[in-house]
Design brief:
- The chain is mainly β.
- The chain contains 1 helix and 7 strands, in the order αβββββββ.
- The chain has a single domain, classed as Roll (SH3 type barrels), CATH 2.30.30.220.
- A 4-stranded antiparallel sheet has the order 2-1-6-7. A 3-stranded antiparallel sheet has the order 3-4-5, with helices on one face.
Length: 159
């Protein structure tokens, strides 16, 4: 019998730590054919998602998948992320969190790392009035204050 990975347990623990301390938990995700996210927000084959209570509906963090609904331009979207595709979890306010090594994907993606499945191509931009993201920003575009523009968030090492 294969041993269960510690990754989903660490993700849930850091999510709880963020919420207990009033921080906004975000996950950095590598997108492939199994990842179900709005494609227009994927940059360089990756997306950052706000997974706070205020930005999500019916958040489920299982051992294999993270699933929730989020609103993009007032329209709900079902988000499905394989645990293996989570690259990091961190608090937006201070960048504290944990990064994970990239795992090999079991399914293919196109040459840009984009999901092979079709996706809604409307120009979704999150706003306020119940949409995900408390500042009217898309949960996939904001990072910690010291995050380099267009790059991965800078994570602070916790010892």
């Amino acid at each position: 019998m294969q041993e269960t990975s510690t990754k989903p347990y660490l993700l849930r623990a850091l999510y709880e730590w963020c919420t207990d301390n009033g921080y906004t938990p975000h996950i950095a995700v590598r997108c492939d054919a199994q990842t179900r996210v709005p494609r227009e927000f994927v940059r360089d084959g990756e997306i950052v998602l706000n997974i706070s209570f205020d930005a999500t509906n019916q958040l489920q963090m299982g051992n294999e998948w993270i699933e929730f609904s989020a609103r993009f331009s007032g329209k709900p979207h079902k988000i499905e992320v394989p645990i293996a595709n989570v690259l990091a979890i961190y608090a937006r306010e201070n960048g504290q969190g944990m990064a994970f090594p990239a795992e090999e994907s079991e399914t293919g993606s196109d040459e840009e790392g984009m999901p092979l499945e079709s996706a809604d191509t409307s120009e979704d931009v999150l706003g306020q009035d119940g949409d995900a993201g408390e500042d009217g920003e898309h949960p996939g575009t904001d990072g910690p204050p010291d995050a380099p523009k267009g790059g991965r968030p800078h994570l602070k090492v916790i010892k």
